[in-house]
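Duplicate of #3305? Posting structure anyway:
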C-alpha cells in the first residue's frame, strides 16, 4: 500500500436468491462481488497461518490475498475452500522476467504443488510498481515479461481459465483523475501500463487496482471532504457529464476505468485489490471513521449497483487488512489497518442480528461499529 493515494427478514426470498447466485457463479465473473480480506504479515506478533485460516473460516471470509508464496500459509489453506490472490513479490520480478524456466518453476513450486487443494483465483505479478519514482521504478521493465511468463506456465498447465494473471497497480499512476472521465495513464505511466493493458485484454484477465479514499482525503483535505471519502456526504455531489459521483471510491475507480479505456482496454475488468481505513495514527484515522468506511464500502460493493461508469457491475473488493501490522513502514497509520488485533480479537463490535443467514464477510464487517 502506497501513500497517495435494514435489517433483512430471515426468509427474505430475494436474499435467498442472492445466496444461490453467489454460490453458483463461475470462477471469475463480472457480477461477482464477494469481499475478500488481505492477509499482510508485517508484524512480529501475528497468529500462525493455521490460526489465520481458521479465523477466516469462522468469520465466513471466503477470499484472501497474500503478498508472497509463504509455504506455511499455502499449506494452511489446503482444503479450506478459501479463494486466493497470490502475489509474485516485487523482489522476485527481475529474476523471473527473462527466464521462462525460472518462471515455470515458480508456478510449479508455489501454485501447481498446491492445486487444487488451494483455490488459486489470481496471481498478482508485482504490487504498486511505479515507473515514475521511488524504489520500484527500476522494476517497471520486469513486470510485463514476468506476467507473460507466469501466464504461459499457467496456460501450459491447462489452468488459464481457472487462475487469472495480473498485476496490482494504484491510483498514483492515474493522471487527471478528476473528473473521472479524464483519467489517463500519461508519460512513463502510459508507457508502462499501455502494454500491460493490451496483455490483459488479449488474455481476458482483470487489472488489480489498490484504491484508498483515506489517502486521497488526508493529502487533499480542502478539496476532498471527509464525508465524501466515507460515503456519508449528503449533497454537493460532483457531476461528470451524465454521471454523478456520490462518493470518492467510485470517482477513483472510474478514473482508473477511464485510464484503462484510453490505454486500449475498454472491456478489461478492474478488481479492487486493496481498500481500507486505519483506526489510529492520524487525525482522520479513528475507530469511528474506519467503522463507517468499511460498513459503507461493503454495502456499496455488495449492492451490485456498480459505479457510474460501470453500472450494474458488482465490484470484487479486498479489504486491507486482516490484522494490525506493527512492522509496517511509513506513517503510524500504516500499522492500524487491521480488522482484527494480533490477538485475533475484532477491533469493532460485531452485530449478531443482521445478515445472520449468510456466513460471509458481511457478518464481520457490515455492522461492526463496524
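Output from current build:
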Amino acid at each position: 500500500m502506497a501513500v497517495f493515494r435494514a435489517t433483512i427478514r430471515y426468509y427474505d426470498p430475494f436474499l435467498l436468491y442472492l445466496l444461490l447466485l453467489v454460490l453458483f457463479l463461475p470462477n471469475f465473473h463480472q457480477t461477482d462481488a464477494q469481499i475478500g480480506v488481505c492477509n499482510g504479515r508485517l508484524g512480529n506478533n501475528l497468529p500462525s497461518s493455521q490460526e489465520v485460516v481458521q479465523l477466516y473460516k469462522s468469520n465466513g471470509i471466503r477470499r484472501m490475498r497474500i503478498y508472497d508464496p509463504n509455504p506455511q500459509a499455502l499449506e494452511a489453506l489446503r482444503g479450506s475452500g478459501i479463494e486466493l490472490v497470490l502475489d509474485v513479490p516485487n523482489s522476485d520480478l527481475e529474476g523471473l522476467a527473462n527466464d521462462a524456466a525460472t518462471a515455470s518453476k515458480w508456478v510449479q513450486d508455489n501454485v501447481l504443488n498446491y492445486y487444487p487443494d488451494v483455490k488459486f483465483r489470481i496471481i498478482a505479478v508485482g504490487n504498486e510498481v511505479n515507473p515514475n519514482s521511488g524504489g520500484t521504478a527500476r522494476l517497471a521493465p520486469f513486470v510485463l515479461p514476468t506476467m507473460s511468463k507466469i501466464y504461459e506456465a499457467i496456460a501450459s498447465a491447462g489452468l488459464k481459465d481457472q487462475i487469472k494473471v495480473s498485476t496490482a497497480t494504484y491510483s498514483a499512476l492515474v493522471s487527471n483523475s478528476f473528473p473521472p472521465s479524464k483519467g489517463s495513464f500519461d508519460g512513463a505511466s502510459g508507457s508502462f501500463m499501455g502494454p500491460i493493458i493490451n496483455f490483459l485484454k488479449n488474455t481476458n484477465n482483470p487489472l488489480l487496482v489498490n484504491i484508498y479514499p483515506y489517502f486521497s482525503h488526508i493529502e487533499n483535505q480542502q478539496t476532498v471532504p471527509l464525508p465524501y471519502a466515507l460515503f456519508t456526504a449528503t449533497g454537493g455531489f460532483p457531476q461528470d457529464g451524465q454521471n454523478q459521483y456520490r462518493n470518492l471510491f467510485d470517482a477513483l475507480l472510474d478514473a482508473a476505468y477511464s485510464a484503462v479505456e484510453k490505454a486500449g482496454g475498454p472491456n478489461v475488468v478492474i478488481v479492487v485489490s486493496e481498500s481500507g481505513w486505519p483506526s489510529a495514527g492520524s487525525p482522520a484515522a479513528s475507530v469511528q471513521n474506519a467503522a463507517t468506511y468499511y460498513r459503507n464500502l461493503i454495502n456499496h460493493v455488495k449492492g451490485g449497483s456498480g459505479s457510474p461508469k460501470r453500472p450494474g457491475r458488482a465490484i470484487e473488493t479486498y479489504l486491507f487488512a486482516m490484522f494490525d501490522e506493527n512492522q509496517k513502514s511509513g506513517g503510524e497509520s500504516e500499522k492500524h489497518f487491521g480488522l482484527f488485533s494480533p490477538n485475533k480479537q475484532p477491533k469493532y463490535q460485531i452485530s449478531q442480528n443482521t445478515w445472520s443467514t449468510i456466513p460471509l464477510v458481511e457478518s464481520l464487517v457490515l455492522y461492526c461499529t463496524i
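Confirmed duplicate; merging threads. The radius of gyration is 19 Å. The mean pLDDT is 87.
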